[in-house]
Amino acid sequence: MKTITIDRTFGSGGREVALRISKITGVPYFDNEIILKAAEDFGVDVGVLKNYDENYVGSLIYNLSMFSASNEYEQSAIYRTYFAVSETMRKLCKENGGGIFIGRCADVILNEIYPTVRAFIYSSSMEKRIERTLEVEDVTLNKAETFIQRKDKQRRNYYQFFTDNKWGAPTNYDLMLNTATIDYDKCAQIIIDLAQE
Q1: What is the DSSP letter of 103?
Q2: Which among 171, 170, 169, 188 has a CA at the least distance from the CA of 179?
Q3: pLDDT digits (tens, 9 = 90+) for 67-83
């Protein structure tokens, strides 16, 4: 079975789809575990990794100067985080003979090395996204849509800065699934079928 990477808009249920794929196939699922493993492997504080996880920080000029710094201590925390997370994903994929990876530019990082199915999960229904967000986040109804938009912007900026690809563009993925019209179980099965080809 191919490695599966899932990018997702916030509140679309991408994590839920990934969990269902893992339950059906027995293939290990990696999300926040990546942060804990990266902290352990690279000696980076877990709090720092969580703070910069899928979060783009700083102006373009500042980030470019930090990225090109000659020594690791001059580089900003976001670059150390990206490096630690990238290397950890590669290691987990190798150790487990694949896996299901959520976000964090996994589609680009792992597709360079392993046969990969790259999925993008989204929902065309803001109402359903808000409903999902209220289930999984500590946010009020009147702030949910703004919260969703902010999280999507963070993911988009992070992805586009580190990959030079457009987040959510169909040309960067093998399939795009809309959870407003396709339920989680069906999304999971579609991805499994493609990964097993």
Answers
A1: S
A2: 188
A3: 444 445 445 666 777 88
